[in-house]
Amino acid sequence: MGEAAVLVRREERPEGAIAVVTVDNRRRLNCLSTPLILGLAEAFAKLGEDAALRAVVLTGAGDRAFIGGADLNELGALEPDSARLFITRLHEACRAIRDCPVPVIGRIGGFCLGAGLELAASCDFRAAADEARFGMPEVAMGIPSVIEAALLPGLIGWGRTREMLITGALISAAEALAMGLVQKVAPAADLDAAVEAWLAAICRAQPRAVRAQKALMNRWQRVSVEEGILAGIDALSEAYKTDEPRAAIAAFFAGRRRGD
Question: Tell me, what's the pLDDT at 260?
Fold first, then answer.
């Protein structure tokens, strides 16, 4: 096994490109050190500049973990200033995922803990292997769960969030599915097929519309309902500055006439 690294693989398809980002630190459950955190932020920043990109899959190497959390050796050596820097960098990696202009799918096998769950929550879609386990165990280490843990109430509600963060208890993939933390659960052997179904659907949609939809939903998370509605009006008007809506609608009616 080589040194821990963030690996990016680009796959060309007729509809555009798909990228797979893999955190490879499998000897340590893919736990995140500062170099890996910086590598994630850099990888997603570069992917965001790829105009041909249609979607990204984020996963961990091996089958034992998606990401088992932050590197405890590094956490154990932090002081107030270095702790602030470490957690800010981790937030920037999460934000790079959230700000990626195309959908990001979290492919979750094995443990998804702490920083790993924050990265997963930053993804647009989440699919888990049936043996995956989820948790926010920071309180057991003497620290609160922070940064993108703030996304959890919007995903699973305040009651579930309080329970997970205050008790640090692990939950199963089935429980994660029931509470809306993930959208799909599949046997490990079928996890790639579950992810591929989403990729195929994304690639069938119109590329500018998908990017506009993600940007609009990201804005909805930050503004009031009324502001979100007004932003949607702007987004629809902007869509018609390209030929994509007219071409897509014309193709739809042409397909109906042919009986497709």
Answer: 60
259 SS3 class: coil
Q: What three-state secondary structure class fits 4?
A: coil
Fold assignment, 5-204: 2-enoyl-CoA Hydratase; Chain A, domain 1 (3.90.226)
pLDDT > 80? residue 259: no
Mean pLDDT of 120-140: 98
The residue among 81, 180, 67 whose CA lies nearest residue 115 is: 67
Given a cut of 60, whether residue 171 has pLDDT beyond it is yes
Q: State how far the Cα of 60 lies from the Cα of 71, in Å rounded to an integer.
A: 15
CA 251 to chain centre: 32
- Identity of the amino acid at 248: A
- The answer to whether 38 touches 89, Cβ cutoff 8 Å, is yes
- pLDDT over threshold 80, residue 193: yes
Q: E strands within the chain?
A: 5-13, 16-24, 53-60, 65-67, 104-108, 111-113, 125-129, 133-135, 171-172, 184-186
- Is residue 144 a contact partner of residue 87, using CB atoms and an 8 Å limit? no
Structure tokens at 157: 């509600």
Return the DSSP state at 49.
Answer: T
- Average pLDDT, integer, range 211-234: 95
What pLDDT is stored for residue 254 in this prediction?
87
State how far the Cα of 151 lies from the Cα of 161, in Å rounded to an integer: 9
In the beta sheet, which residues pair with residue 16? Answer: 13
The three-state secondary structure class of 182 is: coil
**Helix (H, G, I), strand (E, B), or coil: what is residue 71?**
coil
101: CB partners within 8 A, 6+ apart: 48, 53, 211, 214, 215
Domain positions in the chain are 5-204, 207-258
